[in-house]
Amino acid sequence: MPLIIDAVLILQALLGAFDNLWHHEWQARLPQQRGARKELALHAAREALYGALFFGLAWWAWHGWFAVVVMAVLAAEIVITLADFLEEDRTRKLPPFERWLHAVLTASYGLYVGLMAPVLLRWVAEPSALVTAGRGTVSWLLTAFAVGVWAWSLRNVWAVRRLGREAPPSGLPAPRGADAVLVTGGTGFVGRALVLHLRTQGRRVIVLTRDARQARLQFDAGVALVESLDDIAPDTRIAGIVHLAGARVLGRPWTRARRLQLIESRTRLCEDLRRLACRLEQRPQVLVAASAVGYYGVPDAQLECDEQTPPMPEVFQSELCAAAEQGARRLQAVGLRVVRLRFGLVLGREDGAYPMQAMAARWGLGARLGDGRQPMPWVHRDDAVGLITWALQHDDVRGAVNAVAPDRCDQTRFTQALAGSFGRRAWLRVPAWPLRLLAGEMSTLLLDGQVVLPRRALEGGYRFRHVGLEDALRALRSPAACRPWKDAKGETTF
Question: Where is the NAD-dependent epimerase/dehydratase domain (predicted)?
Answer without folding.
Answer: 181-396
